[in-house]
Amino acid sequence: QARLVESGGGLVQPGGSLRLSCDASGISFSLSLSIISWYRQAPGKQREWVAKMATDGKTNYVESVKGRFTISRDSAKKMVYLQMDSLQFEDTAVYYCNVVHRFESRLSYWGQGTQVTVSP
């Protein structure tokens, strides 16, 4: 029973862009009290952390996506986004959204994932 719902994945050419969305309307607390993250898992690989936004809006990214990916949130709409530009073959993976309450880490939620495939 996923509380988060990712969408926006699909097939994109190398160098192209996608914006992933994460609907967090199913959680009971505000995104302003949350640490939000995106992870991805490529075939045959472990799940990899990609991007994070703290409660103050500060962001951090894995080195391989810096300058290409941007995490953002809209607390009023309870939406989380990942803008993905200059996509590469290596970005192909299932992408997952994660929301964790800042002061109650047991309140941690995941979505079902959305597939991103980068191919000519």
Topology pattern, helix = H, strand = E: EEEEEEEEEEE
Overall outline = globular
Number of contiguous helices: 0
The main β sheet shows up as: 7 strands, mixed
Distance between the termini: 35 Å
Uncertain residue ranges? none
SSE class: mainly beta
- Taken as a percent bin, the fraction of beta residues is over 45%
Give the oligomeric state of the chains in this entry, treating copies of one chain as homo and distinct chains as hetero. Answer: single chain
Based on the model shown, name its key terms.
4-stranded antiparallel β-sheet, globular, mainly beta, 7-stranded mixed β-sheet, 120 residues
Summarize the structure in words:
There is one protein chain. With about 120 residues, the chain is mainly β. Helices cover about 0% and strands about 50% of the residues. It is built from no helices and eleven strands. It has strands at about 5, 10, 20-25, 35-40, 50-55, 60, 70-75, 80-85, 95-100, 110, 115-120. The strands form two sheets. Strands 2, 4, 5, 6, 9, 10 and 11 form a seven-stranded mixed beta sheet that branches. Strands 1-3-8-7 form a four-stranded antiparallel beta sheet, with no helix packed on it. A hairpin with a 6-residue loop joins strand 9 (about 95-100) and strand 10 (about 110). The protein is globular. The mean pLDDT is about 95.
